[in-house]
Structure prediction request, 848 residues.
Amino acid sequence: MMKKGSWKQSIYPLFLATLLLGMSVFFVSCKDDYLYDDSEPEWLGASIYDYLVEDGNFTNYTRLIDDIGYTSVLAKSGSKTLFVADDDAFDRFFQDNEWNVGSYDDLSVSQKKLILNFTMINNAYLVETLSNYFDGSLQLGTALRRETAVSVLDSIPFESGDMLPQGPVWNGFRTQGIHLLKDATSWPMVHFLPSTLSNAGISNSDFTLITGAEREQTDAHIFNVKVVERDITCKNGYIHVLEEVLIPPVNIAEHLRRNPDTQIFSSLLERFSAPYFNDNQTIEYNQVNPDQPIDSIYEKQYFSAVDGAVRYPNGSLISTEFLLPFNPGRNSYVPPGAGSALQSDMAAILSPSDAAMNAYFETGSGIVLRDRYGSWDRIPDDIVMLFLKRHLRTSFIETVPSRFDKMNDSENSPIPVVTSDVQSTYVGVNGVVYQTDEVYPPDDYVSVYGPVLFSEKTRVFNWVIRENDFRLYLNSLVSRYSLFVPTDAFFNNYIDPVAYAKDVKGVMKYWYNTETSRVNATIYAYDAVNDIVGDSVAVITDRSFIANRLLDVLDSHIVVGDVESGEQYYFTKNGNSIKVQGTGDNLQVQGGNDIVRGIAVNVVPNGVFEQQNGITYFIDKPIQTPLRSVYRVLSETPEFSEFFLLLNGLTGTTNEVFVKKTNYYGIDFNIKFFNTFNYTVYVPTNEAIRQAIDDNLISDWEEINGMPDTTSARAEEIKKLERFLRYHFQDNSVYISGTPVDKLYQTATIKMDEETTQFGTYKDKYYRLGISGNGDNLQLSTENYGTARVVTDNGLYNMMVRDYIFSNNPLAYREVDGTGTGADFNASSITTSSTAVIHQIDEVLRFE
Prediction:
């Protein structure tokens, strides 16, 4: 036999669902017109209001309904969902609450409205169906949030001037204060339901750390408050009973502002907010409250392209570098991305406590920040933004504790947060705050880029790093770098490679233009013969020119690895070689042209910064890479003359080595088979070359030119000579550098037969050389078991050269002072280059 009341409990939910939503999809957030919104079947039982009155344990809640004027609404038919607390819960609430109210009579009208409206949904939901929503199609068991009945006009707070954030956009309200909405969108509730948690992969331990509450598998919670009785069916909706009184949480940005333990982080966040006059809310409020009008109601918005402001209150556009990943003050925040909805997810913030923020200033990369700026509030906005982006998370679901070990930032760098870092949590209407006892600095702070970013003395290099998108490269914490940074005061007298190929040669002084926030270059005339810098002849502001030239400079100031490992020569990112002597503050470095000019580049005082992925060195001048090509060194060095004559004789033939034409335009002639790499050129002594000719190993050009042009013998002799010469060009630059070497290297000559050689090189592969040495010398072994050694007693070894490739012939441009004909000099650009080291050797190299 059916118990009293069981018919209503078993049949009525289905009947009510049918009436509420007709034949639509079962209980989702969309609501069709309801037949009984304004009338009710006579046989139905109590309304929501009547049920609460008749029960007798909800007197405080019914007083809220009466005082707010909702009695008639909740006493008639319709479709509402209420989460109510009984009188025992209110008794506990009045004994201890964040509003400091001791009795019902202490509640203000605004507080009453917030309690009632925040626990009311304008639709009828069983607890089970709260996890479903409709966004064009039915989404089952994935809803985390749902809009409540709260109106932003329920409470219009007045902020006095001392409560406002710092910054010029707020200063106009500092004296008189402001009526300020923290956001003008709806206040959602957050519900943790079995199906939602299961589908999102949120474990019970996740839930406990997030909310501070314990749960069983079937439990339902609104924020951290447990639903102790659910699905009480009334004629106009459902009642669910909460274990405690629910005070509406605020959004996560507002929580940080109010929390005494996160004031430093909050102050950084507040920099990127402003008050915006809200005409609609002002008009609506004054219509509802004609006896207490407010002249102007403002809305606080944070700067973001996601649910935030992209213009300042004056209408000017906000630079993208000052936009947050999302608006942390947006109550109804919707995560970015296709398929996102308010119900499906929310945000998260990793907020270090004030104690953690202060401790960070005393350790690691924080010390550099402290020494540079003194305090958090003096750090520039662009540097602060990098910090905030690291700690703001667009997805709560991807930031639950069980996923901490998989968390990366927006630049795919791991965030090393662990659950033991979390001191406390807060679930707001738009996300979760994890208050941590650790700081998670962006890679920019801890990488070799950090000192450049922080220093006011390195604005030129900072600009070029950002302009050429090198941040992520230098921020890689899986690599190790040595970064040499010319400070702004010394970023001058850099010889321009294209200008060096012109009649009027020029040196550059690169300087940061504070008015345009860009780098400019002043050109000075340069006497290359006497190494004298003259007067300025022009100023270049062309952005692409500056970026191109400084990219080449940047590439030649980055070494992958350490430069204090005991060697003397190291390769830079673009294949140039640098010579390094000393360590730490006493370190000196030289590029190829520095060595030629007898100039040393020094580390400035206190200019060494140990970073997580390497060392940054501030230096007193740019490193000047070689300006001499292979062609120039060979043609101008008497000891290389016989080798040069043989190479130069090939010019104009199909076997030529020196070229100067499209795709090969450089300072003079380039090596045809060099290909953006580093090489070694072994130059036999003049005596060795003449001996090879006397021994008929090769023919000189006098003999070759004496042969008839039409004979195959002449062509074969030219080809033989070319192959002989190319065997003296080796892939990879090898220096006498104090470090032992024993390795095989490819040459530029291809093996064309099946003959067995010393190194077992196969046909159609490049012949090789065996290079060995104890660090003070180099010995060469050839494919035919011959040997040679590098000559070190005449100084003709370790000679750095560089073959540039420019976008066009240097003659196509006017001189740096504007004279001559052709395109503007600032239209020139460096395309690429190859580098080499030249050694004199005592014997010719043969493979036959």
Q: What stands out?
A: The chain is about 25% helix and 25% strand.
